Amino acid sequence: MIIINKTNKTMIIGVPKEIKNNENRVALTPAGVAELKKNGHSVYVQAGAGINSGFVDAAYEHAGAKILPSIEAVYAIAEMIMKVKEPIAEEYSLIKQNQLLFTYFHFASSEPLTKAMIAQGAVCLAYETVEKADRSLPLLIPMSEVAGRMAVQEGAKYLEKPSGGKGILLGGVPGVPPAKVVVLGGGIVGTQAAKMAAGLGAKVTILDVSLARLRYLSDIMPANVTTMMSNHYNILEAIAEADLVIGAVLIPGAKAPHLITKQMLTTMKPGTVVVDVAVDQGGCIETCTPTTHENPTFVVEDIVHYCVANMPGAVPYTSTLALTNATLPYAIELANKGWKKACVENIELRKGLNVVAGKIVYKGVADAWSLSLTDVSVVLE
Ligand SMILES: NC(=O)c1ccc[n+]([C@@H]2O[C@H](COP(=O)([O-])OP(=O)(O)OC[C@H]3O[C@@H](n4cnc5c(N)ncnc54)[C@H](O)[C@@H]3O)[C@@H](O)[C@H]2O)c1
After folding, report:
1. Looking at per-residue confidence, does 377 or 23 come out higher?
2. Active-site residue identified among 106, 208, 293, 367
3. Is 367 annotated in the active site?
4. pTM of the entire structure?
């Protein structure tokens, strides 16, 4: 990536260590530090921030960052804080008026967070609402790619007998047929899952409601992947034969539909595994409730359920690189131009603005908590 800073502006960027439970990712890699330095900016990284993603302090220093001993020191010095997860309560008071926070926020799921960011007067640019002209969400896609690929890995593991599954190898062996994998939803997660399952030799069926999407998938997928229109009849038929079912549907802004009810589980073969990746939106399998990496599965009607809500957290090295590949060009633009000019000139970034200097500027957030909405143009004047 070559982005040249044509302005004389420089920015101080801070990278704190994530303190949310079980969050092992970090917002910037040493390579990202080097890019920001090349553009004339200063980067301060909290000691140990990258360690769980495989990046030691010395690697950041080598790339040109300064290491600070505490989270307080990072928040105190930085004009832009780059994070992965939303700030948690103990960080709220560290955030300064007009400090730019570039991270995942998911404001619509936390009223205390929304009110705290309003009170602190921060500029909150949320990864999850940065949006391209084709309506795709470039800073969410990498995590869906990770989760989709992981779904097959986890499904294969829990199909093993000692893990509670029916004891079937996804790819089979010569003389023994492969396992059958059903993927509900052929978007980012579903496509990556289908590719991985097919690569291991499984017999894969993808169901989606979009005929255009099914056409595309039918064109690009290998011969051991079949596409099917998603409806109740076809889902019943597919799951009766399945060894592994992956839930990957999304209806933007809505709860996931329950495509497999508790009653339908009784039509499936005992020891079948369901991996409901859509659990973060309520799940597309009625019996799914969120689980954690410490305790990822439970069994209902002899069906093994894997419902971890933050799957990428288990592979922080890959997830950090995937996330920072996507965030870094935006971070450099914000640093080079300052957030206001960057958001005026780049509509993708402008859509990421959620809360600015005490005002909510993103409709979904205002609606979620019945708070007043300010037009984003007002804060960009
Ligand atoms: N658990 C995790 O750690 C984790 C990580 C990343 C993403 N996710 C979640 O995975 C889900 C899928 O994300 P995505 O990025 O693939 O979304 P996406 O928008 O790319 O794909 C969703 C697909 O579902 C299809 N769909 C909608 N209704 C359907 C139905 N009734 N039957 C079949 N298909 C239907 C859509 O046509 C679309 O192709 C989301 O809920 C996302 O939040 C979870």
Report:
1. 377
2. 106
3. no
4. 0.89
